């Protein structure tokens, strides 16, 4: 899609403007504040229904309807319109969009609506306008922010949100499994305490159940299930009752509690060990990302061959075998994984013990109640249970608690020592149990135990299932995230590879001399996008770290072109460059022109600039023709931009002369001749007489350019003769003769122009006087301009060990060897 | 002009991996459909990945 012509009514600073480009490049130039950017905004609005500078960071208070229209049209939004005739797949189509209804647009003929829709969908990516703001987005942004910008361009915000959700789900699944595992451990301990098992196993439980059934004259059961525990047994009177704890349970719980207290030293060690591990991981960010690094180095090993070339940056590894280096790196990542596993293992161990103690304390409190022992300090108990709970929770996500400063206030030494003793629950209970002795018969105890076992076994089965479900959930959550990240990274790496290759090529085109071995690296890393560039073979650095502003501007331009190529797939052929290469010098601007011509011959560039020299250079380099140069002269609120469509100079002069307006014609000729010869001096590296006040004029530029021209022509003619290229020699001899005649004519009459302009004696001249001057200058201009490509000839040097000087045009029709 | 979006390419690769893994037997289609949906909630994903509704369990006598 290319813009053939554009009509803008009441948009931003524009009241009404019509511009025709016929799908060719267009340059809008003029001082700041003359409304150039309003043209950019109008094109942006036409293609996307938005004005990008009114969206994004720092634009909360800005809105399209309030600030997108001309200030005087806020109450008349129906008349805020952009209409463009565009070319789509060889068809001419009219598109019209109004700020009144920005999300919809009219298409004429209507039958092309679907076609235009599909193109404008690509345009919504916004990848058709580059301004200084966008350059900063790509070049100087932090990795996280840049990733967001690029993700937004690639429409990946939903993908990133889903990735973040998978990360949350994975973390929750891990925490859930830790809780389920601990619950299962506590249930097993409950069963062990009830049945007085030395160590828990399902077989030991079954054997113990059968022992108890035997006491009650029951047959043995082969499988353990809540329904079978008391199957076929005669009902028996309860001893302590179904709700009360059995003496054995209390004794075993006391035994387990004491055993836990005896494990204090081990727990102190585990706490220290855990804190050391957490501190190490906190200090070394890489340890947290071991899995990602591991994958990277493993992929590296599979890709590196004997050439020792890095598959990422494409440079040769000079320090020994690259594969050995990668293997060492994998070992380092293994250390990271080891640390994470140790953290999981240690925290699970502590959690298991803490939860067990918490459950035991709860049961012992019930035993105290059962014996009506009123010795426990309620406040101490509450505070102790709260400490246990804080440890239990912290061990689910230890790193999170450690980093956020929510680590438990009491150490495990206190919890398994002094703090526990403060509750004073063990001794009174032991003494009471001793005094009570055996209260119930063997049969009553057996019946009580089997009755409780029914409930315990149900809980055992449930917590076991919970643990299994949590484990499967954790595995699926981990795998989902891994698959999703792999898919995302793989697709993005392919894209970034394509973008990177184009980026490097474009950048080298702009900087062929100093950056011929330039390389860059664009890589997704979790939620970040790392963008680094080579700095003269000294390593990879962020693009804004060491490169000059001019180089950064070039990089921004090249990255934009590379992204544009990938994203728009050549659908939108119009590219708007809004005052973007201001930090690039004239020589590299010429290289930019070369890039535009060489790499984007089918694109339509709409270039705005406040720099007249750049505008003229674009014309001289053959990027834009005279008729597509629009000069914005001024702006006022009532009329909008005051501009002139640059007609062909000779046509404009003819118009003046037809009206017998010699002064205007002479003024135009002088002004344009001055610009033309200034540019010619630059392109031909002409020698100019130095002036301290830096104010050169036509009288300085024209002779210098002509001198350079004649010198080169003479040299080229001589070279053709030496090389025995007779035809070329004859051609240049003829041109030399012709040029001498033209130069002679123009020099004789130059005084007329000078005098006319300087002394304003225009009334003394007639059309008849001025016609020959115009003819001479037109012929003079033509000498410096290629009749095929319209570009001004330029002096340059070829590449290679022995560079050769030449004079040529853009298309190569003119090519003089001046070595 | 019809071209797959970058998101589609990512979801296609994701679906391929999920469908190959027996860990996702019985839920792979639902998971892929959920992932492709705009902004699926965390609870929907959790429910699907859990496979069964976990009612949770507390220990005690």
Shape of chain A: elongated
Order of helices and strands of chain B, N to C?
A: HHH
State mean pLDDT of chain A (0 to 100 scale): 85
- The oligomeric status of these chains comes to heterodimer
Helix % of chain B is 40-55%
The structure class of chain A reads alpha+beta
Largest sheet of chain B: none
CATH homology superfamily name of the domain at 2-128 and 572-646 in chain A: P-loop containing nucleotide triphosphate hydrolases
Q: Work out the strand percent of chain A.
A: 5-15%
- Distance separating the two termini of chain B: 68 Å
Look at the helices and sheets of chain B and give the structural class. Answer: mainly alpha
- How many helical elements of chain B? 3
The number of domains of chain B: 1
Under CATH, the topology of the domain at 2-128 and 572-646 in chain A is which? Rossmann fold
CATH architecture of the domain at 2-128 and 572-646 in chain A: 3-Layer(aba) Sandwich
Largest beta sheet: strand ordering of chain A: 7-11-12-3-13-14
Summarize the structure.
Chain A is of the alpha+beta class. Chain A has 28 helices and 17 strands. In chain A, a hairpin with a 2-residue loop joins strand 4 (81-88) and strand 5.
How would you describe this structure to a colleague?
The complex is a heterodimer of chains A (819) and B (61). In chain A, β16 and β17 form a beta hairpin. Among the domains of chain A are: 2-128 and 572-646, Rossmann fold, CATH 3.40.50; 252-438, no CATH class; 654-817, no CATH class. Chain A has 819 residues and is α+β, with helices and mostly antiparallel strands. Helix content of chain A is 58%, strand content 11%. Chain B has one domain. Chain B has three helices and no strands. In chain B, α2 runs antiparallel to α3 (42-50). Chain B is flat. Residues 53-61 of chain B have low confidence and may be disordered.
């Amino acid at each position: 899609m290319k813009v053939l012509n554009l009509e803008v009514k009441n948009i931003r600073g524009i009241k009404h403007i019509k511009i025709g480009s016929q799908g060719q490049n267009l340059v809008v130039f003029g001082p700041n504040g003359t409304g150039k950017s309003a043209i950019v905004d109008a094109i942006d609005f036409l293609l996307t229904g938005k004005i990008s500078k009114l969206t994004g960071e720092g634009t909360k208070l800005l809105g399209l309807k309030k600030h997108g229209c001309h200030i005087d049209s806020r109450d008349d939004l129906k008349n805020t319109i952009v209409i463009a005739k565009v070319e789509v797949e060889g068809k001419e189509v009219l598109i019209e969009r109004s700020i009144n209804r920005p999300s919809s647009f009219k298409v004429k003929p209507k039958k092309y609506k679907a076609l235009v829709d599909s193109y404008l969908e690509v345009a919504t990516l916004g990848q058709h306008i580059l301004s200084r703001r966008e350059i900063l987005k790509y070049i100087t942004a932090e990795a996280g922010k840049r990733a967001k910008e690029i993700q937004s361009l690639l429409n990946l915000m939903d993908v990133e949100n889903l990735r973040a959700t998978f990360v949350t789900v994975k973390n929750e699944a891990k925490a859930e499994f830790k809780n389920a595992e601990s619950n299962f451990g506590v249930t097993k301990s409950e069963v062990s305490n009830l049945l007085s098992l030395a160590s828990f196993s399902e077989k030991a439980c079954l054997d113990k159940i059968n022992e108890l059934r035997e006491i009650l004259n029951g047959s043995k059961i082969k499988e353990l299930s809540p329904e079978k525990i008391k199957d076929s047994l005669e009902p028996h009177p309860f001893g302590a009752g179904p709700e009360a704890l059995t003496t054995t349970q209390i004794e075993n719980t006391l035994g387990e509690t004491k055993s836990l207290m005896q494990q204090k030293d081990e727990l102190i060690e585990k706490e220290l060990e855990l804190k050391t591990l957490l501190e190490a991981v906190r200090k070394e960010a890489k340890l947290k990302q071991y899995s990602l690094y591991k994958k990277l180095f493993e992929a590296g090993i599979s890709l590196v061959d004997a050439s020792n070339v890095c598959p990422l940056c494409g440079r040769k590894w000079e320090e020994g075998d690259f594969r050995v280096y990668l293997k060492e790196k994998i070992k380092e990542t293994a250390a990271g994984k080891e640390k994470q596993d140790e953290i999981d293992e240690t925290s699970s161990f502590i959690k298991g013990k803490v939860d067990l103690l918490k459950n035991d304390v709860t049961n012992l409190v019930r035993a105290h109640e059962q014996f009506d022992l009123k010795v426990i300090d309620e406040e101490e108990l509450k505070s102790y249970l709260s400490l246990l709970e804080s440890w239990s929770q912290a061990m689910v996500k230890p790193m999170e608690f450690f980093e956020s400063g929510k680590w438990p206030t009491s150490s495990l030494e206190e919890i398994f020592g002094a703090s526990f003793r403060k509750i004073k629950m063990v001794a009174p209970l032991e003494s009471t149990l001793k005094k009570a002795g055996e209260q119930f018969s063997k049969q009553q105890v057996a019946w009580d135990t089997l009755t409780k076992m029914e409930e315990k076994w149900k809980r055992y089965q449930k917590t076991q299932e919970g643990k299994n479900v949590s484990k499967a959930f954790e595995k699926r959550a981990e795998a989902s995230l891994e698959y999703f990240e792999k898919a995302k990274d793989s697709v993005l790496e392919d894209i970034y590879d394509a973008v990177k290759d184009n980026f490097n090529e474009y950048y080298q085109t702009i900087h062929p001399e100093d950056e011929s071995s330039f390389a860059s690296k664009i890589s997704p890393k979790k939620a970040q996008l790392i963008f680094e560039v080579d700095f003269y073979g000294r390593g990879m650095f962020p693009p804004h770290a060491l490169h000059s502003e001019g180089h950064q501007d070039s990089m921004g331009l090249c990255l934009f072109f590379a992204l544009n190529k990938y994203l728009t797939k050549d659908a939108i052929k119009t590219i708007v460059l809004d005052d973007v290469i201001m930090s690039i010098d004239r020589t590299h601007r010429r290289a930019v022109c070369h890039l535009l011509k060489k790499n984007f011959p089918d694109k339509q560039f709409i270039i705005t600039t406040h720099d007249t020299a750049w505008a003229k250079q674009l014309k001289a380099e053959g990027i834009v023709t005279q008729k597509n140069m629009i000069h914005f002269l001024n702006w006022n609120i009532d009329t909008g931009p005051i501009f002139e469509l640059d007609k062909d100079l000779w046509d404009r002069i003819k118009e003046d002369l037809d009206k017998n307006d010699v002064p205007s014609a002479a003024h135009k000729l002088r002004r344009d001749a001055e610009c033309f010869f200034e540019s010619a001096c630059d392109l031909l590296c002409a020698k100019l007489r130095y002036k301290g006040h830096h104010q050169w004029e036509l009288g300085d530029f024209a002779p210098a350019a002509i001198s350079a021209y004649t010198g080169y022509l003479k040299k080229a003619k001589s070279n053709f003769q030496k090389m025995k290229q007779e035809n070329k020699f004859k051609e240049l001899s003829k041109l030399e003769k012709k040029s001498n005649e033209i130069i002679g004519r123009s020099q004789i009459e130059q005084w007329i122009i000078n005098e006319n302009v300087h002394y304003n004696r225009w009334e003394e001249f007639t059309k008849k006087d001025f016609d020959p001057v115009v003819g001479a200058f037109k012929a003079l201009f033509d000498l410096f301009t290629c009749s095929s490509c319209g570009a001004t000839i330029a002096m340059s040097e070829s590449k290679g060990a022995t560079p050769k000087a030449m004079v040529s045009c853009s298309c190569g029709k003119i090519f003089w060897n001046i070595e | 002009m019809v071209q797959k979006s970058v998101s589609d390419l990512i979801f296609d690769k994701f679906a391929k991996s999920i469908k190959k893994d027996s860990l996702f037997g019985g839920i792979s289609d639902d998971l892929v459909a959920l992932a492709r949906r705009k902004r699926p909630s965390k609870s929907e994903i959790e429910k699907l990945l859990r496979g069964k509704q976990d009612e949770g369990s507390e220990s005690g006598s």
